[in-house]
Design goal:
- The protein is α/β, with parallel strands linked by helices.
- The chain contains six helices and seven strands; from the N terminus they run ββαββαβαβααβα.
- The protein has a domain of 175 residues: 3-Layer(aba) Sandwich (Rossmann fold).
- 47% of the residues lie in helices and 13% in strands.
- The strands form three sheets. Strands 4-5-6 form a three-stranded parallel β-sheet, covered by helices on one side.
- Strand 1 and strand 2 form a beta hairpin.
- It starts with 21 loop residues before the first strand and ends in a 6-residue tail after the last helix.
Length: 262
Amino acid sequence: MLTDPTAEPIALTLKSETKDADFSSFLVDDSRIVLNIIDTPGLFETNTEEQQIRDNDTIISTIQRCVNRELTKFHLICFCVSVIAGINKEDVASLKLFKEYLGEQVSSNSCLIITRCELKDEEERAKIRKELEEDTHFKPIAGFFSQGVHFSGSLDYDAYKSSPLTLEDQFDTIMQDRAQLIQLLLTDIKPFNVSNSLISDLFQWQLLLARKQEEIDLLQTDKNSYINDIELMKNKKQEQELVIKKLKLEARKQNGNGCTIS
C-alpha cells in the first residue's frame, strides 16, 4: 500500500502473507529521507491448521536478526490487525510477551494499524475506535499504543473482480490513509534502542549458552573417541588372546601326536 496503492489485489487468506522477515529501504523523494522498513511475520495471526500457525518465537528471533544486523534503533513499531479478524485474548497475550521482552519504553514508539478499512468512512472508523476502547480484550493494552491507532487498506479483491466501478472511492480512501501513515513515519520520534532491552540480554545469554554447548559437544566427541580407542584396544587384546589360545591348542594336539615344539 505504501509503495504502490494501485497494485492488483490478491484474494484474502487467514494467514499472514509474510513468511520471513523482509528488510527493505525506500527513498522519500520530497524529503530526501530513507525509510528502512522491516516487515515481520504476523504477531496477530490465526489459522485453522496448527502447523501453519507462526508462534511468538518467530517474532522474537526476527528481533534477534535485527540485532545481528546492527539494526538496534526502531523509529516506529507498527502492530497490524485486520478489521475483519479483530483482536482476541491470544493477541493480547502475544503483545504482553512482546512488551515483556522489549520493556515498557517500547510503548512510546508503538502504534496500531487496522487494515482492510478501504470501505470504512469516518463514521464507521469512529465506531471501530469506540469498540476498541470498550473491548474487554483490548482495554488492558489500550494505553500501549502511544503513537495512536491508524487505518489502512488496499483495493478490495472482490470489487476488483466483480465491480471495478466502485474502486474509485476505495482508491481515494487508500490514498488519504497512505498520506497519513507516511507522515507518521516521517514524524520526529526518539528511536527505541533494542540494545537496552531484555531481549538483547537474553540474546547474549543464548550466544553464551550456544558456545558452552559447542564446548560440551566437543568434549563429548573427545570422550566418544577415547571410548572408541579403548574398545578398539580391547578388541585387539581379545583377538590376540584368541590367537594364543589357538596356538596352545595346536601345540597340545601336536604333543599328543608325539611332536614337540621347541
